[in-house]
């Protein structure tokens, strides 16, 4: 049976995040020929609707309000629920991002619905869809199926392949007027600790440093390598605790979960809490001077050596390839 599916598009600094396109691809599978409706919430975000359509949404509903120019769970939940009430979909998809993790449980509970969070793959389609999600910090995967009611799930960034962008696709982008009231928080300013470069949670390449990097300056060459590969720098908690870098870069059980195409672990031992945040990366390269380091158990390629020798060699080699 075909379904009507709502997909939340996430806009940051005027740009739709990739996970929105991945969520549309997931929604298409579930819709099984039904309608996929993009939802945009913010202030002056309607123009992003065209891109959602080019990535597969059939139409887009934008809720614009000055109170929605920065994310608050009160404001965004009022806006999303208004769209939900108008459309009465059978399924809802969000990205499993900081915003999605905050908003989805609130909306699911308001709708008395279940929530399948952190989906990394979908087998089958429509009513037969099986949702794959990690459990026990990524040590195992479960397959979940819903029996009845609203199907509400979040997709982990970088796991579901988006559809090809088709600039010839067209569809309606409409505005829905919603009264936003009773905001318990007003965000006056957002100060990003890491303001430049590729977003760590969506990066296709992550170069992560650990305590083995030995200093904040030691992260310089890692940043250079990441820049050369078009990626982002991450870190173990060991490196953050030692003050080599900011906690916003921490990857792991109590940090960010990343699934890049290439993860380069540099001077990281491979503690279970770290692996919970990166073991699903498509290709893992580990650089460690200890051949017994745990990280080699999950690595596709291992380099046993001193990172202070290996990283400059890699940088020089990649620069050579680029000329
Ligand atoms: P270490 O374990 O000290 O490893 C450093 C590695 O660098 C060693 O393997 C060493 O051989 C190698 N090395 C040293 N010098 C060189 C060199 N010159 N060249 C090459 N290799 C070198 N950790 C996380 O990362 N993320 C989390 O989210 C997280 N959450 C946690 C939650 C809880 C509740 C707890 C208890 C712990 C958590 N931890 C987390 C901490 C985790 O247990 C480890 O302590 C931490 O991951 C270790 O960081 P590390 O690998 O950088 O340091």
From TrEMBL:
Keywords: Electron transport, FAD, Flavoprotein, Transport. The keyword Transport applies. Pfam families: ETF (PF01012), ETF_alpha (PF00766). InterPro entries: DHS-like_NAD/FAD-binding_dom, ETF_a/b_N, ETF_a/FixB, ETF_alpha_N, ETF_asu_C, ETF_asu_C_CS, Rossmann-like_a/b/a_fold. Coiled coil: none annotated. It comes from the Bacteria. The keyword Membrane does not apply. Belongs to the ETF alpha-subunit/FixB family. This is Electron transfer flavoprotein subunit alpha/FixB family protein. It comes from Sporosarcina soli.
């Amino acid at each position: 049976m075909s379904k009507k599916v709502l997909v939340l598009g996430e806009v940051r600094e005027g740009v739709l995040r990739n996970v929105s396109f991945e969520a549309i691809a997931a929604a298409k599978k579930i819709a099984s020929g039904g309608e996929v409706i993009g939802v945009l919430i913010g202030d002056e975000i309607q123009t992003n609707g065209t891109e959602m359509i080019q990535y597969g949404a059939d139409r887009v509903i934008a809720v614009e309000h000055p109170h929605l120019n920065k994310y608050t769970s009160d404001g965004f939940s009022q806006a999303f629920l208004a769209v939900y009430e108008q459309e009465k979909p059978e399924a809802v998809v969000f990205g499993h991002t900081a915003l999605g993790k905050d908003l989805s449980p609130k909306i699911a509970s308001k709708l008395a619905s279940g929530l399948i969070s952190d989906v990394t793959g979908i087998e089958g389609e429509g009513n037969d869809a099986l949702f794959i999600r990690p459990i026990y910090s990524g040590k195992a995967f479960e397959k979940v199926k819903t029996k009845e009611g609203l199907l509400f799930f979040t997709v982990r960034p970088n796991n579901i392949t988006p559809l090809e962008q088709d600039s010839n696709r067209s569809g309606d982008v409409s505005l829905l007027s919603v009264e936003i009231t009773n905001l318990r928080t007003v965000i006056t300013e957002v100060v990003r600790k890491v303001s430049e470069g590729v977003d760590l949670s969506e990066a296709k390449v992550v170069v992560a440093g650990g305590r083995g990097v030995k200093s904040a300056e030691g992260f310089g060459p890692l940043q250079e390598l990441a820049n050369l590969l078009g990626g982002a720098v991450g870190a173990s908690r060991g490196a953050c605790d030692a003050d080599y870098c900011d906690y916003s870069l921490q990857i792991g059980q109590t940090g960010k979960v990343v699934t890049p195409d290439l993860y380069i672990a540099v001077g990281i031992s491979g503690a279970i809490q770290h692996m919970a945040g990166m073991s699903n990366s498509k290709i893992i390269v580990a650089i460690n001077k200890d051949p017994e380091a745990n990280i080699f158990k999950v690595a596709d390629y291992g380099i046993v050596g001193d990172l202070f020798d290996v990283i400059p060699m890699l940088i020089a080699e990649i620069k050579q390839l680029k000329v």
